[in-house]
């Protein structure tokens, strides 16, 4: 499969800036569609490089269509789907994380859901981004829904081996995600040692998600090896009220850490 416009945009931006920051909007977690749309718009004004739309439960149908269409009308960066299942598809998106959960126990999440969704994605001309998805403790909702053999936080070599296998299988992006469960025991961002181990094991862009709630955590993630960090819960916590401020602060860190990466290379 040839590199599409969104994948090219990501690769060229990483080459030019060294790091990227994605905002993740789960419209189910906002008080209204307008609040979700405003958050996406303000996050891009603050410097987010791409908007993700999705969630583990209930992001589909009219809600997804309306939110994706409005966000796409109001931002100038790619709008990409972060699907919870085969219903998280809309023609109003530019691209979709075409994900395989690499540590799923149920083959549905490895290849079957992808097989069911592929014809519709092609028909609607949504660009598929081949993503290998690794769920790390505590896993949150996605860990439960995705029936994952969740990677222990203290086992970075397992995550690295999964990431390596994902790249060997053809995934052009790898993501490690702790899920959105800040109250769980032992929760927090992906551990430093795990980020470093995964980055050292692969050559494709590495995305880190889950548990990052402040600029310190964000800076640590980039310094440890993340190419891209996606942020959702922080925006949801304020219900979007501070999206521009949060995004501006996070974007500043991404630029600074990206510049450091480019200088080292």
Give an overview of the whole structure.
The chain is an alpha/beta fold. Helix 8 links the parallel strand 7 (206-209) and strand 8 (228-231). It starts with a helix and ends with a helix. The protein is globular. It is built from ten helices and eight strands. 45% of the residues lie in helices and 17% in strands. Helix 2 (33-46) packs parallel to helix 10, helix 6 (156-168) packs parallel to helix 7 (192-201) and helix 8 packs parallel to helix 10 (243-264). The model has no long low-confidence stretch (mean pLDDT 95). The protein has one domain: TIM Barrel, CATH 3.20.20. Strands 1-2-3-4-5-6-7-8 form an eight-stranded parallel β-barrel, surrounded by eight helices. The chain has helices spanning 5-17, 33-46, 61-74, 112-123, 140-145, 156-168, 192-201, 215-224, 233-237, 243-264, and strands at residues 20-25, 50-54, 79-82, 95-101, 127-135, 173-177, 206-209, 228-231. The longest helix has 22 residues, at 243-264.
Layout of strands and helices, then pairs:
Layout: H1 5-17, E1 20-25, H2 33-46, E2 50-54, H3 61-74, E3 79-82, E4 95-101, H4 112-123, E5 127-135, H5 140-145, H6 156-168, E6 173-177, H7 192-201, E7 206-209, H8 215-224, E8 228-231, H9 233-237, H10 243-264
Parallel strand pairs: 1-2, 1-8, 2-3, 3-4, 4-5, 5-6, 6-7, 7-8
Helix pairs in contact: 1-10, 2-3, 2-10, 6-7, 8-10
